[in-house]
Specification:
Elements lengths: L2 H11 L6 E11 L5 E11 L4 E5 L2 H19 L5 H20 L1 H34 L2 H4 L14 H23 L1
Antiparallel strand pairs: 1-2, 2-3
Length: 180
Amino acid sequence: MDGSEFIEQAMSTQRSVASFMLRFTQDLWQDENGDPQVQWRGRINHVQGSEEIPFTDFTEALTFIQRQLQDLTLKAFPSADPEIREKALKESFKLWEQFTAGYADMVFRAMQGTFQQSQEIQGQVGDALAKTFELWMPPSLRTGQPTASAEAPGIDLMGQIETLTAQVAALAAKIESLES
């Protein structure tokens, strides 16, 4: 029996499973210039082997997956000669090559979608807070009347409310990031 027949026979009589769980954490903040900053980090877990590693570069996660799949393939041929094991690895990684060919685009699209969702949520929270504060304002302020009153000249109630709204939105964002 030649090497390829051995591989086909072994693969037709064995089935192995490799499952991985990815967990991503996104940190968002503004730098000293007010520009948005994003940092991704994560953990990957090999479910069947209970091995887990942290990563800050997705390439580290892919290397972990590749190593686990390589080990699984080699364990399927424990007593085969090195040439057979090498052929088995080449066959095993044909699927891996197809999978990884588009991973960069896939990850970029996922991160882009998450960022857009985050911006939408921040906008919705800001709108809700503005509407809530508007309901609490005296009618004269809701209609665009001057903000300074005769009793307290120079007090800018709208400006104070806008400042409070911004502070509450910033606190909500900090709480959300801590909960994540």
